[in-house]
Design brief:
Helix content: 25-40%
Order of helices and strands: HEEEEHHEEE
Mean pLDDT: 79
Strand content: 25-35%
Number of helices: 3
Structural class: alpha+beta
Radius of gyration: 16 Å
């Protein structure tokens, strides 16, 4: 681990702790653990998307082409390899390989949903600040406009 990575993680932890202390001081109950944090917004400066990383994405819900489980490699900020890990994921990669997102693109979709006043735009973050779960629902009473992303096996 480089000194820059260690420093970034230290800053991430400090921002997370400060946010939790600030929330507690305001009298608002929170159920954050040392592993994850649910919040309406990301703590500022908590996580910067690295240029290169890998992660596993389980994308579900809604009528979209990006349904299934994928192992994704990102280099220089772009997806360079996406492998479908189940039948739905393999079909998605075969039919629309450009639809497989980076974590930054998933966070941009979350922020867009928030700006557009979606009925649900929630995320859960790991201790280092990377997203672990994103749930979107643009219109509560609409059918098939939801998206659920679960991020696991993140490796910077």
């Amino acid at each position: 681990m480089t000194a820059e990575t260690r420093a970034a993680r230290a800053v991430s932890r400090a921002v997370l702790i400060a946010g939790l202390i600030g929330t507690a001081a305001c009298g608002t109950e929170t159920s954050a653990s040392s592993e994850a944090q649910s919040a309406p917004g990301r703590p500022s400066g908590a996580w910067q998307e690295p240029a290169s990383y890998t992660y596993t994405l389980r994308s579900s819900e809604g009528e979209r082409s990006l349904i299934g489980t994928f192992r994704i490699s990102v280099r220089d900020g772009a997806v360079v390899n996406a492998a479908g890990l189940d039948d739905a994921g393999r079909r998605a990669v075969d039919s629309a390989p450009d639809a497989v997102p980076t974590l930054g693109e998933l966070l941009a979709e979350l922020e867009s949903a928030r700006r557009d006043d979606a009925d649900t735009a929630e995320a859960e973050y790991a201790a280092d600040g990377h997203p672990m779960r994103i749930v979107l629902d643009w219109e509560e009473n609409a059918v098939d406009d939801e998206a659920r992303y679960v991020i696991t096996a993140y490796e910077p």
